[in-house]
Amino acid sequence: MNVNAAKIASLISDTSRATILIQLLDGRPHPATELAYAAKIKPQTASFHLQKLYEAEIIDVEKHGRHRYYKITNHTIAESLEKILYLAPPEPIQSLKQSKETREIQYARTCYDHLAGKLGVEITNSLLNNNILVKENLQFEVTKEGQLFFKEFGIDLDSLYRKRRAFSKCCLDWTERQHHIAGALGKAILERMLEQNWVTKAPKTRAIHVTHLGEQQILRTFLIK
User: Fold this and answer.
1) Which of 24, 36, 26 lies closest to 61, judged by CA?
2) Residues 199 and 111 in one domain
3) Residue 191: which of 118, 127, 115, 117 has the closest Cα?
4) Under 8 Å CB-to-CB from 91, ≥6 apart: which residues?
5) pLDDT for 15-37, tens place per residue?
């Protein structure tokens, strides 16, 4: 057994650290105070856990003056954490607020930098069913029809192909148990939907909210409700 793998497993098995990492899956930098509040621990305790995660290179830190903001190191680590969530049993619902947040996250959320949840999977399936994308070896390839579709959608595919990250990967959705689109293309789709005000990010969770305009345009563009 790889000893380093055991160390990583031990790090993320702690409930407080796991909660912090789940909070960071929204792809945004967070101060230690916010992460402490989310994990229901003291700021000093959060700082201890954050230092451990930083030393293991699971998270990174941005310094802005006297303030520090923490984020997951890269999309590969974020996708690995999502796969672990796939194996975890559902969290028991203990309040109406938690029930509402859970429903929102299950419907649409950020998976680091791309769209996940029911909406993310439905968009993926629509693009597959309409021959915009094809799935090959856990990756998505753009068809000729897809090239025209994404051009009209406002995404420059050539610029995505030139990026140093994977163009488009299958990411297993932990709530839907199906694949959604990750990689540079997945990020670009979410960014375009945000730019056009079809969706907005929830301020304190990973949830993505669909606007009234978004309901109309998502139906028209992807043929889903």
Assistant:
1) 24
2) yes
3) 115
4) 102
5) 899 999 989 988 889 999 999 99
